[in-house]
């Protein structure tokens, strides 16, 4: 019996290399790791969650789907209590604040032997600024669609040098280069979000308003370039 997986999680799995030892941080139900083992993609999965109940559910799902022998389960805040014997860390379905606190507590992840697959649910520009400041580079990024929702998924490595600023913290160069057919629609949504922020700031004005206005202009230029190269929106 195959486990059902959302496009969002399938896209995260798409960045896992054959034979990888994977650490799924915030595993919840454990579906991602179970899928990776069922498909013979990962060789071993460390499933970790900060709460007991999701971890129990991951364990019972792993048994139900017959992959528990190749999984280990850890009650852990981020990577604090897990072994460091993995190649690829997946962190999906969390906000930027949680991801930043997990990564900040583990500077040992800044090593060429680790790859991070991150799917951030909220405040993504904050995470992208943090990553580039800390020397992490977004090597690849793409979009997944589930119903009306669009989710960016990125593959990150420790490679200091590329500092993201302005509109690139919203739409990374890697995402721009992805050629994803979902990119025009995603960029339109990002632009609407910034326009709404600007509306909220219009009474107070000041430097925050001016920053958002500059950002909006950059995003609109990005969008126009995309229309020229990709031929319009969805
Ligand atoms: C919304 S669920 C996402 C589950 C799954 N990764 C996905 O994308 O479908 C977030 C999970 O992360 C766990 N979590 C939140 N903060 C965490 C932390 N600091 N360390 C480990 N797990 C955490 C929660 O308990 C919850 O099970």
Model description:
The protein is α/β, with parallel strands linked by helices. The protein has 2 domains: 7-168, Rossmann fold (3-Layer(aba) Sandwich); 183-230. 41% of the residues lie in helices and 21% in strands. A 7-stranded mixed beta sheet has the order 3-2-1-4-5-7-6, with helices on both faces. Helix 1 (7-14) crosses helix 2 (31-38), helix 4 (96-104) runs parallel beside helix 5 and helix 7 (183-201) packs antiparallel against helix 8 (206-230). The longest helix has 25 residues, at 206-230. The model has no long low-confidence stretch (mean pLDDT 95). Residues 9, 25-28, 48-51, 54, 77-78, 92-94, 98, 102 line the site of S-adenosylmethionine.
Order of helices and strands: HEHEHEEHEHEEHHH
H/I helix tally? 8
Distance between the termini: 35 Å
Q: Into how many domains do the coordinates divide?
A: 2
Helix content: 40-55%
Total number of beta strands:
7
Q: What is the CATH first-level class name of the largest domain?
A: Alpha Beta
Describe the strand arrangement of the main beta sheet, using strand numbers: 3-2-1-4-5-7-6
CATH architecture of the largest domain: 3-Layer(aba) Sandwich
CATH topology of the largest domain: Rossmann fold
The CATH homologous superfamily of the largest domain corresponds to Vaccinia Virus protein VP39
Q: What portion of residues belong to β-strands?
A: 15-25%
What radius of gyration results from the CA coordinates? 19 Å
Structural class designation: alpha/beta
Bound molecules: S-adenosylmethionine
Low-confidence runs:
none
Form type:
elongated
Question: Main sheet, how many strands, which sense, barrel?
Answer: 7 strands, mixed
| Whole-number mean pLDDT | 95
């Amino acid at each position: 019996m195959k486990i059902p997986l959302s496009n969002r999680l399938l896209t995260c799995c798409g960045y896992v290399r054959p034979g990888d030892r994977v650490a799924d941080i915030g595993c919840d139900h454990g579906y991602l790791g179970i899928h990776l083992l069922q498909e013979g993609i990962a060789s071993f999965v460390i499933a970790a969650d900060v709460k007991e109940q999701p971890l129990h559910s991951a364990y019972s799902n792993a048994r139900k789907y017959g992959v528990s022998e190749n999984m280990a389960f850890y009650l852990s805040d981020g990577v604090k209590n897990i072994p460091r014997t993995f190649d690829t860390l997946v962190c999906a379905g969390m906000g930027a604040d949680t991801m930043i606190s997990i990564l900040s507590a583990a500077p040992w992840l800044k090593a060429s032997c680790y790859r991070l697959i991150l799917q951030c649910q909220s405040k993504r520009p904050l995470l992208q600024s943090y990553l580039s400041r800390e020397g992490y580079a977004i090597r690849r990024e793409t979009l997944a669609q589930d119903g009306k929702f669009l989710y960016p998924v990125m593959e990150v490595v420790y490679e200091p040098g590329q500092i993201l600023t302005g509109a690139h913290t919203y739409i990374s160069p890697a995402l721009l280069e992805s050629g994803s057919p979902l990119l025009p629609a995603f960029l339109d949504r990002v632009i609407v979000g910034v326009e709404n922020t600007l509306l909220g700031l219009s009474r107070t004005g000041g430097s925050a308003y001016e920053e958002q206005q500059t950002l909006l202009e950059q995003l609109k230029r990005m969008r126009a370039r995309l229309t020229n190269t990709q031929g319009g929106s969805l």
